[in-house]
């Protein structure tokens, strides 16, 4: 009887190297951006081994349960499940964070916000910091780990996201973060030296055409008609919550830099306001410095 050529790893005894190359090819054909890395990470996940082990053991023969799991996971990816959700964790600023479909997948460009916050914190004694729209908690947890003595509040409107943020804080042994479910800053009292926010900022119409809408939470992405439905009210609320000295750091959508600058100066006419670009050269971060 002629054997089916899918799934190919069930029909023939092939080694790990060939398996990896076959997966890579499948991913490449499906339009995956980084097929070699995704194939390698997928094999590490299924075999519970390091990248170097997978690359070194070219002749290893996968067991039947390993082949079955591999087939399931590869099908997940080929049908659109993001790799971070499949792995259940994703790196950010040198640490690994639990992620699931209730939270946005950490993006490398958000590290810029964390770097700026750490730079400012060096000049502040025991700063009071808030992360608005914390999601998986990557900003709050990174700052808690990097800034000893800081008092950190992490808020989100999503109870499910906040549960993930709390799990991440526990996993990283960070006990100094206070979590709260809020709509932006509305029920929050006190003054903050650092207000950090990576809120939803993609204009609704732009979002309609993006594939992320299919897999990541709408609540984390949709910035309303102009992209400022959350950033704008946060700026207004921050007028009475920003300490002197104090800094606001806002991640923004790359096409909205100039508008973001105008909004920031309308709320903080006497502050120094700087627009920063990410590593790809896109407008990404608004820094408002009040002295
Ligand atoms: C773009 S995600 C960012 C998550 C995380 N800070 C990060 O950088 O990966 C935006 C987050 O803001 C939250 N959010 C949306 N509207 C909010 C609101 N009105 N108040 C507080 N958080 C909100 C969402 O639930 C989501 O977790």
How is this structure best described in words?
This protein is α/β, with parallel strands linked by helices and 291 residues long. The protein has 2 domains: 72 residues, Orthogonal Bundle (Helicase, Ruva Protein, domain 3); 201 residues, Vaccinia Virus protein VP39 (Rossmann fold), CATH 3.40.50. It has 14 helices and 9 strands. It has a 7-stranded mixed β-sheet with strand order 5-4-3-6-7-9-8, with helices on both faces. The chain has a two-stranded antiparallel ribbon with strand order 1-2. The radius of gyration is 22 Å and the shape is elongated. The N and C termini lie far apart (79 Å). The model has no long low-confidence stretch (mean pLDDT 94). The structure holds S-adenosylmethionine. S-adenosylmethionine binds next to helix 8, strand 4 and helix 12. S-adenosylmethionine (SAM) binds next to helix 8, strand 4 and helix 12.
Structural class label: alpha/beta
Number of structurally distinct domains: 2
Q: What is the arithmetic mean of pLDDT? A: 94
Q: Note the total helix count.
A: 14
Into which percent range does the helicity of residues fall?
Answer: 40-55%
**Topology, number of strands:** 9
The molecules bound to the chains, other than polymers, are: S-adenosylmethionine
CATH topology (fold) name of the largest domain: Rossmann fold
Annotated CATH homologous superfamily of the largest domain:
Vaccinia Virus protein VP39
CATH architecture of the largest domain: 3-Layer(aba) Sandwich
What are the segments in which pLDDT stays under 50 over at least 5 consecutive residues? none
CATH class of the largest domain: Alpha Beta
How would you write the strand order of the largest sheet? Answer: 5-4-3-6-7-9-8
Distance between the termini: 79 Å
Dominant shape:
elongated
Strand content: 15-25%
